[in-house]
Here is the input.
Amino acid sequence: MHTALAVTHVAFEDLGSLGIELTHAGFNIELIDACTTNIQAIDALDPDLIVILGGPIGVYEQDAYPFIEAEIELLRSRLAAKRPTLGICLGAQLMAAALGARVYPGLRGKELGWAPVDAGSDNCSPPWFGALLTPGLHVLHWHGDTFDIPDGAVRLAGTARYPNQAFAVGNYALAFQFHPEVTVRGLERWYVGHAKELAEAGVGVPKLREETRTFGPDLETTARQFWRHWLDHLFNSTQKAIAQ
Here is the structure.
């Protein structure tokens, strides 16, 4: 049985649709809270998959949140060993930092709401990524920070406001600035947990909920298809190569 370690920063930003597909694929999932766990005690190479999820803090706020440095070190060791790793939003920013790229407040304001992503300018998106580039598909954006693409990584997606929305490293690491994992039901917790941020950004919950009801079901369906293809690429292909 494969094992997956999911690292959260706020409880309501969870695995969402990815959790469903990991369960269906027979993964044993362990959830830990980055804020209260001794991350330095974690064996970076032990889990078959590590997923670092989102949160409302910045990679550069290590003085206020010392566990960030431990997360970066965990990721640095993991990625150096080319072990399967996924980062979403803050998780993607932590991966970028671990790979030596700059992470910083975005210069074009917060990107918060539903919008499509376009293929990255590297123009070499792998087949398993294509579902998230389906014409008309809207994904959820919820960030104010951004990152540079690390050396050796492939830029997979972007938007007009922030061109660095996803990158891959080899066949083992994947990072999303946007949120492909969210579900319509799960986002109800976000509206409460991020109430202050939404108010400061001038985003009304009723309007955001309406957009979620419009675009969320398609994303859930497409994301579950994407997660299946990606997990198959990540693990089954490797096992076949070993067997040969």
Remarks:
- The longest strand covers residues 3-8.
- The chain has six helices and twelve strands.
- The mean pLDDT is 94.
- The two ends are 21 Å apart (CA to CA).
